[in-house]
Design brief:
Helix content is about 20%, strand content about 30%. It is an alpha/beta fold. The longest helix is centred in the middle third of the chain and has 21 residues. The protein binds uridine-diphosphate-N-acetylglucosamine and calcium ion. Calcium ion (CA) binds next to loops.
Length: about 500
Amino acid sequence: MPRDLTVIVLAAGGGTRMKSKTMKVLHPVGGRSMVGHVLHAVLATDPNRIVAVVGHQREQVGPHIQQLVPDAVLAVQEEQLGTGHAVRVAMDVVGASGQTTGTVVVATGDTPLLTGDTLREFVHEHLASQAAVSILSGVVDNPFGLGRVVRNDEGDVLAIVEEKDASDVTREIHEINSGILAFDAAFLTDALPRIGNDNAKGEFYLTDAIGLARGDGLTVSAHPTDDVVQTEGVNDRAQLARAGAELNRRIVERWMRAGVSVMDPATTWIDADVVLAEDVTILPGTQLLGATVVGEDAVVGPDTTLKDTEVGAGARVVRTHGELAVIGAGATVGPWSYLRPGTRLGARGKIGAFVETKNAVIGEGAKVPHLSYVGDAEIGEGANIGAGTIFANYDGVAKHRTTVGRHAKTGSNNTFVAPVAIGDGAGTGAGTVVRRDVPPGALAVSAGPQRDLEGWTLARRPGTDQASAAAEALAESPAAVDHADDPTDD
Ligand code: UD1
Ligand code: CA
């Protein structure tokens, strides 16, 4: 890599064809913004500086870029007068920072498939060719709308001609300008003021620099990429979806080659920043999003969405929706579980069917197997929460915490009215409403003793199917009605 490399990322255009209040380069694909993907590729060239040209919605685009690359320099292009003008605005910043030699690469913010390898290789080729300008070109079936690379009979590059300015003969050329160009900085500085806007669009075309270099007798080279898809810009939402699908296809393929089993690549979506270990298995209908990490031998899916979630080695996650959660090694989750932010399930723990958790730390080997809501809770290791338990964390004003001790075993259909603590090794009976702390080792019961009001159905529901069923059963084995409670006294 050259020791003085500047990369200019053009991101000032309006992107009107997106028909969106969100600026084009901020639209997400594969878990990053489009410009985020480009910056990722740019960083791989190890540049000395990155200059981003911003204009439209720069109050959103600028901070976004600087959040991703804190030392990126922003150059504001107030009016979008063309790519040549945009680069001139950027070079004013570069010149002010003292660079007059070295290499300047220009890329655009709307090519989410661009990789660092491609960009790095292009910079190498540019330097090796000792050209004043190099074009990353590509041969495409349908060149419509793109700048054509015009060569002479010897194959030397003469110019880039834009679609609107092209003759019928030039329009037949299938080698196009990807929009990614590399310049000798001194030549670029000299050429920019010489670019005019006397063309079909009335814009300052950066691509005019190629013709100027030829006129100066300098070398121009074009390097056709064999993966032109990487350089395709996204202009509308149909192209956005196509780019997203292609990016995903590439990511899924990469993980399969790295030792991940993906049963159905077509219904598996993996964001660019997800990390998977060897021998992970992903079942159909699964989305792994954001900064999700999955450990060795874990099985995720089918029909699971995990965002920014950590899955431990050997865990099993079935039909689950999780966000900002941590699932311990060997734990089991699902089916139909909802893990909200702050859920931390310990190793070999269980969150079972129809269980929702939030801000819940569930210890090693602890289980919440069925039909429960666990909010703002800490459950000790080895504890078991009975089916249908509600951690009542919200009193209508504030949220409160519940703790359940180690190896506690709570009964079915309990309500824990927070703030409340259930001690280590304690238990609760079925249907208990826990409003006060339960001491370690105690069994808490709050439901009253069962009373049987015998004869109640016959007295209160005469003539119903319920009454005839009761009467038939009683006729077969008559109950001792003499000590029954009076069914009318409650
Ligand atoms: C440009 C190239 C064309 C190439 C194509 C590849 C020129 C004149 N033409 O055409 O040869 O085949 O890209 O996609 O360069 N931008 C600014 N400020 C401006 C104008 C543009 O920041 O004043 C940004 C846009 O936001 C966009 C990029 O530069 O990201 C390209 O500009 P655009 O107008 O779309 O150029 P194309 O017509 O696509
Ligand atoms: Ca474009």
